[in-house]
Design the sequence.
């Protein structure tokens, strides 16, 4: 493939990341610089940094791949990722900043004056953070493997080493610059090739059948099936086969498969004629970012769409790397304005993945069969534009993809390492923060090597569902409801987050559920979020005597504008 | 030269302007600072206004987004509409909603500061 330019592009991104990080290091001097960049990051820089951190592998590669395989329903993902910020702005942004805490566990402790709740929140931060780090490392491995044929673990290893080095050396100040730089890099890396792709598409007479179901092959296309898969046909299909279909070996034979399910063995080569409809596949776990146990098309009732909407809308506010960013704003008003800028920046970015998804349906429909749908973004420039130009554009996209892994992984590592340093390791201080960084990255790296084939969309969905049903109730009720008690908060987080975690874990472990039960378990947010809220409220009401004594003063601090609030403290 | 070094240098400062201007007046500000029941009432009123602003915008969001999956499910032939709406048409309204909310929230806070500062 186009490894000639891709490797230098990825190397360039890595070197630039280290250099920008080193630039931040020169002005990162105090402990406060280290954790929250001394809270002096202005809205624009901070917004670019937050967006850079937020646009992960799932956004850069995963959405286009999902859309390619499963159609426009999957566009709810980017809409949800963006709307999550609006919900965060409405209920959380300014009070969270005014709470004056460093991390989510700090918030829990400040609000509820309870060490137990603090530790529980810390455990959830580390859990959600590790769950979210895993897909970043796997995505990096996939990208490098697709582009250069390197071993799967290598990309993840590179990302892990660079991230640990930048985070441990420079802390938050340096990361802020790195993230802001990487937002613009990612936007360019998708925007420029997209412009060329659209031009090439227009030049080809702007065919539009990509928008209609199902996708068809534009020209004669040969597909090498890597993993055994089951084709589900609702009408007869005529193809040329070399390999094994339904247990019968064939050699360059033209066969017409009748309706029904057909097993295509690994290593089979299929040739589709022009205009053939792309058949639907039925596959199990195969490690691609775009395939999920929970999401074969027929099993996605309306319920699943609403579950996805709820999880992404409410889960964003609890993602550890998102929350920690708000403490770097100078005051509550700036935190709000930053959030609006973030909405604009990520909204702008998310206009692009649908373009890749649609063109992918048009130009690379065979990716749905090979299981490499996530590679659509990487392969399209070469396929559509071609020549040296296509290779250069492909290299640009590969660099951007690496920026995506690096930035999200840095933010998550930062958040997880902060919690580990403050709550787990024996003493505080910058040296221990560095130890925490290594620890924060070592666990998901080991897991990504060991687990290997975990479907990435599931890991991301799990992180959002757990966050929506544990941190969302804690933040919203903690900020707006006076009668929240420590036992209530702990019970709500355990019941809501715990049940969401168990439900998705059961789905991943192939729990033999069918129909409604399966959908309920695969998309837990619709019941686990209300469950979390309800538990938190009911237990709090039952333990009304344990409302922390300083609640009124704390809520006043959360909500009063800074000009009043500075003097309240004095 | 004076014998006592403490007499040698004296820092001369004026009284803090704000406290002079406000001393002797009854002010809601003091109530909040001293966390009296009345002060809590002021804070509660601010919280309620802010929560109302947030809930109004949230309701608009739910109203905007909530029915969409139903619409798409009811009209499966309108694939292009789904592509268009989900892919490109929702982000601008989200940003406008956010700006609207920020303006309201900041105005609420300004009004509140004016109220308690007695300006």
Sequence:
């Amino acid at each position: 493939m186009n490894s000639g330019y891709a490797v230098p592009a990825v190397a360039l991104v890595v070197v630039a990341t280290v250099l920008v990080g080193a630039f931040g290091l020169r002005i990162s001097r105090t402990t406060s610089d280290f954790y929250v960049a001394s809270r002096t990051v202005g809205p624009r820089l901070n917004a670019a940094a937050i967006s850079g951190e937020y646009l992960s592998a799932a956004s850069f590669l995963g959405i286009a791949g999902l859309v390619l395989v499963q159609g426009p329903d999957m566009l709810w993902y980017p809409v949800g990722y963006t709307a999550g910020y609006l919900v965060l702005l409405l209920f959380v942004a300014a009070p969270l900043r005014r709470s004056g805490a460093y991390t989510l566990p700090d918030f829990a402790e400040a609000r509820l004056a309870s060490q137990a709740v603090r530790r529980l929140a810390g455990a959830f931060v580390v859990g959600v953070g590790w769950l979210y780090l895993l897909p970043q490392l796997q995505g990096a491995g996939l990208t490098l493997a697709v582009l250069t044929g390197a071993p799967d673990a290598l990309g993840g290893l590179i990302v892990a080493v660079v991230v640990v080095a930048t985070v441990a050396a420079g802390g938050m100040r340096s990361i802020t610059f790195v993230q802001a730089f990487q937002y613009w890099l990612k936007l360019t890396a998708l925007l420029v090739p997209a412009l060329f792709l659209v031009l090439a598409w227009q030049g080809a007479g702007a065919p539009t059948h990509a928008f209609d179901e199902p996708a068809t092959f534009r020209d004669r296309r040969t597909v090498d099936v890597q993993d055994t898969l089951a084709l589900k046909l609702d009408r007869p299909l005529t193809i040329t086969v070399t390999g094994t279909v339904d247990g019968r070996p064939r050699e360059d034979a033209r066969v017409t498969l009748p309706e029904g399910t057909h097993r295509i063995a690994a290593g089979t080569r299929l040739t589709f004629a022009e205009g053939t409809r792309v058949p639907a596949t039925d596959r199990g776990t195969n490690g691609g970012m775009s395939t999920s146990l929970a999401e074969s098309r027929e099993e996605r009732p309306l319920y699943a769409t609403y579950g996805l909407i709820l999880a992404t809308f409410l889960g964003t506010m609890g993602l550890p790397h998102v929350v920690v960013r708000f403490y770097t704003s100078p005051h509550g008003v700036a935190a709000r304005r930053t959030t609006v800028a973030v909405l604009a920046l990520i909204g702008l970015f998310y206009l692009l993945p649908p373009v890749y998804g649609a063109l992918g349906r048009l130009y690379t429909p065979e990716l749905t069969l090979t299981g490499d749908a996530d590679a659509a973004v990487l392969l399209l420039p070469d396929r559509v534009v071609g020549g040296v130009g296509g290779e250069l554009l492909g290299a640009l996209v590969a660099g951007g993809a690496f920026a995506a892994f690096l930035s999200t992984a840095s933010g998550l590592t930062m958040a997880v390492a902060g919690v580990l340093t403050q709550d787990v390791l024996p003493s505080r201080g910058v040296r221990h923060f560095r130890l925490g960084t290594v620890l924060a990255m070592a666990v998901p790296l080991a897991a990504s090597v060991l687990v290997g084939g975990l479907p990435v969309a599931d890991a991301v969905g799990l992180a959002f569902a757990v966050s929506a049903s544990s941190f969302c109730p804690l933040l919203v009720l903690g900020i707006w409801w006076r009668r929240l008690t420590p036992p209530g908060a702990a019970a709500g987080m355990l019941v809501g987050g715990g049940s969401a975690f168990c439900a998705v874990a059961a789905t991943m472990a192939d729990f033999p559920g069918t129909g409604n039960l399966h959908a309920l378990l695969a998309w837990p947010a619709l019941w686990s979020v209300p469950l979390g809220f309800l538990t938190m409220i009911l237990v709090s009401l039952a333990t009304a005597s344990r409302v922390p004594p300083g609640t009124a003063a704390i809520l006043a601090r959360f909500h009063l504008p800074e000009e009043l609030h500075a003097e309240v403290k004095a | 030269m004076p014998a006592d070094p403490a007499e040698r240098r004296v820092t001369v400062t004026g009284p803090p302007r704000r406290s002079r201007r406000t001393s002797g007046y009854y002010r809601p500000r003091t109530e909040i600072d001293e966390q009296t029941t009345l002060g809590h009432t002021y804070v509660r009123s601010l919280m309620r206004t802010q929560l109302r602003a947030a809930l109004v915008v949230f309701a608009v969001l739910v109203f905007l987004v909530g029915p969409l999956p139903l619409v798409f499910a009811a009209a499966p032939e309108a694939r292009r509409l789904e592509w268009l709406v989900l892919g490109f048409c929702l982000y601008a309204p989200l940003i406008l909603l956010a700006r609207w909310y920020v303006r309201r929230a900041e105005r609420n806070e300004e009004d509140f500061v004016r109220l308690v500062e007695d300006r």
Remarks:
- Chain A touches chain B through 48 residues (CB under 8 Å).
- DSSP finds 23 helices and seven strands in chain A.
- Residues 3-204+301-452 of chain A form a domain with the Sodium/glucose cotransporter fold (CATH 1.20.1730.10).
- The mean pLDDT of chain A is 80.
